């Protein structure tokens, strides 16, 4: 989706999440597309994170703060975290914060196209980019 919106491999991407199940396996495609992928665990040293380890709300506050001050924010789920964050960013930036809230039901149809997923046929890729922009 980010590639379809024009973000390239030089884009700094921060993933706000807890520990990711089988991270090496499931994050590999994203890391390949965006080598500058970061999390709180890659930004901070273990010593710096030690004071937060036993406090999940403090770890979430780190993610919140980084996302609050980011150039753009992409939400992929519902819940309090993204809703509060979107409102806070709207307030801080006078309604001009770049926030991307994809329509997942429409996006899954685009992702389901095997021509886009495997081989990246140029014509299908252009159609994919056009469709993502229309979302």
Automatic annotation (TrEMBL):
GO molecular function: glycosyltransferase activity
Domain of life of the organism encoding this protein: Eukaryota
Keywords associated with the record: Carbohydrate metabolism, Fucose metabolism, Glycosyltransferase, Transferase
Pfam family of the protein (one): O-FucT
Glycoprotein keyword on record: no
Record flagged with keyword Protein biosynthesis: no
Transmembrane segments annotated in the record for this chain: none
GO biological process: fucose metabolic process
Family as reported in the entry's similarity comment: Belongs to the glycosyltransferase GT106 family.
Protein name from the UniProt record: O-fucosyltransferase family protein
Organism: Pisum sativum (Garden pea)
């Amino acid at each position: 989706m980010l590639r379809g919106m024009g973000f390239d491999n030089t884009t700094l991407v921060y993933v706000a999440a807890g520990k990711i199940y089988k991270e090496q396996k499931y994050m590999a495609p994203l890391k390949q597309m965006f080598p500058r992928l970061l999390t709180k665990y890659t930004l901070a040293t273990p010593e710096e994170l030690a004071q937060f380890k036993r406090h999940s709300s403090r770890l979430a506050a780190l993610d919140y703060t980084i996302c609050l001050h980011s150039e753009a924010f992409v939400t992929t789920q519902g819940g309090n975290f993204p809703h509060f964050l979107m409102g806070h960013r709207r307030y801080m930036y006078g309604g001009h914060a770049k926030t991307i809230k994809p329509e997942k039901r429409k996006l899954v149809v685009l992702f389901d196209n095997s021509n886009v997923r495997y081989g990246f046929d140029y014509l299908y890729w252009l159609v994919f980019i056009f469709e993502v922009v229309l979302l």
